[in-house]
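Re: that backbone. Tokens:
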């Protein structure tokens, strides 16, 4: 499909008025949900893998990044009309698909990138993260709204895996979340779990020391870096072989300069659990330049405050693989949050899920 081609045939009208929704205690109130079955194709390209979500306040449309590694279609993001009001989601319509390309305007080859997060840049372009390439190397990009890469940011070399995978990002645990400061000057990027040289990935006994890198967006230069400790795995597998993990799946900047960090736990058979933390992206030990957090003295991670834990069944939801989070419109003075799930293109029970909440900040 050519870049910018308008998509037809995917529009839904949805109303949730009058439906009694089970609520969980905390600062969120659910107002709507939309679920899309896996396997739906639009103009020959399968829709799914939504790993990043951002709202363009100018148009009101959402940018939804797919984590397809050019396996089912081009590396891409979508522009979506998602109409939200006090009754919930009243319309879902995919407007167009935009293929992401390299600096020469060529499509990314298969497995060259693994898209995970997308944000609008202050200059009107987009920033997006790739968790890994074929060598396991992470990347942060700036692209124009037509999807063409304008630059690739230079990351500290200790993020790059060595031949023995004893340093650098652990495979599939790179930058899952990115966010801009409210003034647009700083770009934040948080890894899902620790770098290989910093410590173990999260397990049932302990969390993992992720790194939050702070970049000056204009120059691309690193300004600071902080450790963020995830929670241990909070669910136990009920099926064999046991699969259990926990890590950062998204971050979102609030207007007051604090981050919401989404941690997602998954256990085979038990399902998903989502933790939302409020984090001020400063105040911990600045570890920029430290190749290993095991060396150079004590490390104080960023302080975090639990906002809410979402378990299977809370709000009447069957939670899926939540990886995207965006600020929605303000309704009656209340900020809305829009969550999106990555279906992993898995036809065996996973779906694409959009859930809208109002946020009550205390």
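Recovered sequence:
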């Amino acid at each position: 499909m050519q870049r910018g081609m308008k998509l037809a045939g995917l529009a839904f009208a949805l109303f949730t008025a009058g439906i009694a929704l089970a609520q969980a205690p905390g600062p969120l109130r659910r107002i709507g949900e939309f679920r899309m079955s896996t396997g739906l194709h639009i103009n020959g390209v399968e829709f799914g893998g939504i790993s990043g979500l951002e709202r363009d306040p100018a148009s009101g449309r959402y940018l939804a990044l797919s984590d397809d590694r050019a396996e089912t279609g081009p590396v891409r993001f979508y522009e979506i009309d998602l109409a939200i009001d006090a009754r919930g989601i009243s319309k879902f319509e995919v407007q167009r698909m935009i293929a992401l390309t390299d600096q020469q305007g060529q499509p990314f080859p298969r497995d060259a990138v693994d898209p995970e997060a997308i944000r609008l840049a202050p200059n009107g372009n987009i920033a997006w993260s790739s968790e890994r390439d074929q060598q396991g190397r992470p990347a942060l990009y700036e692209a124009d709204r037509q999807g063409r890469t304008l630059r690739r940011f230079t990351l500290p070399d200790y993020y790059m895996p060595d031949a023995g995978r004893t340093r650098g990002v652990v495979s599939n645990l790179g930058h899952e979340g990115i966010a801009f400061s409210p003034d647009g000057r700083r770009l934040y990027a948080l890894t899902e779990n620790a770098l290989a040289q910093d410590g173990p990935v999260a397990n049932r006994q302990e969390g993992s020391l992720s790194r939050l890198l702070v970049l000056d967006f204009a120059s691309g230069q690193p300004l600071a870096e902080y450790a963020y400790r995830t929670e241990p795995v909070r669910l136990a597998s009920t099926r064999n072989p046991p699969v259990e993990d926990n890590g950062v799946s998204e971050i979102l900047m609030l207007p007051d300069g604090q981050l919401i960090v989404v941690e997602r736990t998954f256990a085979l058979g038990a399902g998903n659990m989502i933790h939302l933390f409020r984090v001020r992206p400063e105040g911990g030990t600045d570890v920029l330049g430290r190749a290993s957090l095991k060396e150079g003295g004590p490390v104080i991670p960023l302080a975090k405050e639990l906002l809410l834990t979402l378990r299977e069944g809370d709000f009447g939801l069957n939670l899926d693989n939540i990886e995207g989070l965006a600020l929605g419109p303000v309704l009656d003075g209340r900020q809305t949050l829009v969550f999106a799930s990555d279906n992993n293109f898995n036809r065996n029970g996973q779906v694409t899920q959009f859930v809208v909440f109002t946020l009550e900040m205390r």
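The longest strand covers residues 88-99. The radius of gyration is 19 Å.
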